[in-house]
Amino acid sequence: MTRFTPLQFKDAFLKSVTPFDSQIVSLWDKRRDYTALMLDFIFPEIAKALKISVYNADYYYLDSVFYAERDSDHFGDSAIHAKCLSIAVEHEHVLAGTEVEMNKLQLFNASLKVLITYPQTDELRGMYLDRYTKIVREADIFSDFATLRRALVVFGQLSGHEITWSFYAYEASGFQAV
Question: What is the DSSP-derived secondary structure letter of residue 82?
Answer without folding.
Answer: B
